[in-house]
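Hey team,

Filing this mostly as a record. A colleague (T.K.) asked me to run one chain through the structure pipeline before their review meeting, and I want the input and output archived in the tracker in case anyone asks later how it was produced. No errors, nothing strange. Just documentation.

Input sequence:
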Amino acid sequence: MGTFMDVHYGMKGITADQLREAHQADLSHEKAEAVHFEKAWADPKEGVVYCLSTAPSAEAVQRVHEKSGHLADEIHEVPITV
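Output structure:
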């Protein structure tokens, strides 16, 4: 399992409730792909959302986002944490 940070652009004005709903949608689909979404952050002014997950691959992360209706624009594996 790896750790991944994904980025979604074009989310200007996203609210906390909308972020919570998107995160819940991911949680409802994650089990089928052996993905676990840990946390999500948003910058409504810049329109950027970040999601942290553990998963077998970036492709598995994207499949969950696809099922949830919000594809990631970028997915980065982050193999080093402190």
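Quick notes for T.K.: The beta strands are 2-8, 36-43, 48-55, 74-77. The mean pLDDT is 97.
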